[in-house]
Design a protein that fits this description.
Blueprint (H helix, E strand, L loop, with lengths): L1 H4 L13 H11 L8 H7 L10 H18 L1
Length: 73
């Protein structure tokens, strides 16, 4: 981990997961050839996005992506 090499203390919360890292591992294991962006994962799971600028809708979509990845894995 970079924080260990730089000798910078890092308070890691085990409840925090980064969606990109989880999506990257998922795409590697399931043969998706695109970068694991939010839109790529929306397309992969066939989730609609009515208003891409609505932050609440994006958070709900991200939670649904997370649920589906966990359910699949």
């Amino acid at each position: 981990m970079a924080s260990k090499k730089a000798s910078i203390p890092f308070d890691y919360d085990r409840h925090t997961l980064e969606m990109w890292t989880l999506g990257y591992i998922y795409t590697l294991n399931y043969g998706i050839k695109k970068m694991p962006t939010f839109n790529t994962l929306l397309d992969h799971f066939h989730l609609p996005q009515k208003n891409p600028r609505n932050a609440l809708e994006r958070v709900r979509s991200a939670a649904e992506i997370f649920r589906r990845i966990i359910k699949t894995v």
